[in-house]
Amino acid sequence: MLMKVTAALLASAAMATAAAACELTLKASDTHPDGYPTVEGVKAMGAMLEEKTDGRICIEMFHSAQLGEEKDTIEQTQFGVIDLNRVSFGPFNNIIPESQIPSLPYIFRSVDHMHKVMDGEIGAEILGAFSDHDLVALTSYDAGSRSFYNSQKPITSLEDLAGMKFRVMQSDLFVDMVGALGANATPMPYGEVYSSIQTGVIDGAENNWPSYESSGHFEVAGYYTLDQHLMVPEVLVMSKKSWESLSEEDQALVMEAAKASTEVQRQLWAEREAASEEKVRAAGNEIITEIDKTPFIEAMAPVYEKYVTDETLKDLVARIQAVE
Ligand code: GTR
């Protein structure tokens, strides 16, 4: 017993020393729980950064929305209160026009297509657009594809969606996307979705396998229809204030560690996607895989018309579609 306690004390003392050695500790936020691939991706970035700087720069991860819901943490990141923030492109849609592009329904044909776009020149341009908004977008992460789930009935066609009420992220684009499918959208923070489904304020929401599972939404919304309307990647942003306080050398190290963490995150993502699916299926949820996506895709034309307005955005969409 005593030995155990001593060992634990020694370990925590060692950790405290390590933390104390950090000249700079970057505060990072994520809405997801510990162990979720995005949280682990940023932690991996922290480990790489600590190693490259001999423990001079560290990252402290505040997972599980400890620092707030995404929309609020984005503002805090713009102010420099939070240094790093792993979020979806979705909550940026109303403030950064280019962030709407990877958030367009059915814009990506496959995960491979999305990787080619986001890892290439087009992705760099989209990330670059954040710099006009007090942010530096470092890299993007995987988030699979999002589909509708609900507590009421199996949805197998557009007709079934009619009049139902779904939560979406706080983005006008997503409100109109759900409207164009004939359903009603309620934008609300992620953390309110579980109880809103449980109390019947909404019929359901939409998300990928790992979020459907880790949030517990699968417990209250038993029907999941794989219409895969969105493939919005995640984005890791840094406060421009925090970025500008770094030397050029340190900026390069931060960028390098962020880019390298993408590989780790993608690997973890693939594993978690499969594990979450298995868990949800084992719970007995009804998963609707037989669905004709064509009417869903066709219904999105007015959404593209409304949001892909100026030449820059039109050009981005055309170039994405041209990527093989
Ligand atoms: C998740 C995403 C989160 C958040 C959440 C939501 O898939 O990883 O960043 O955007 O969806 O729906 O609010």
Describe the secondary structure blueprint for this structure:
Elements: H1 2-21, E1 24-30, H2 37-52, E2 57-62, H3 70-79, E3 84-88, H4 111-119, H5 121-128, E4 135-141, E5 146-150, H6 158-161, E6 165-168, H7 172-180, E7 184-187, H8 193-198, E8 204-207, H9 209-214, H10 217-220, E9 223-230, E10 234-239, H11 240-244, H12 248-282, E11 286-288, H13 294-298, H14 301-307, H15 311-322
The structure holds beta-D-galactopyranuronic acid.
Secondary structure category: alpha/beta
From the N-terminal CA to the C-terminal CA, the straight-line distance is: 62 Å
H/E element order: HEHEHEHHEEHEHEHEHHEEHHEHHH
The number of E-state strands comes to: 11
Spans where pLDDT lies below 50 across 5 or more residues: 1-18
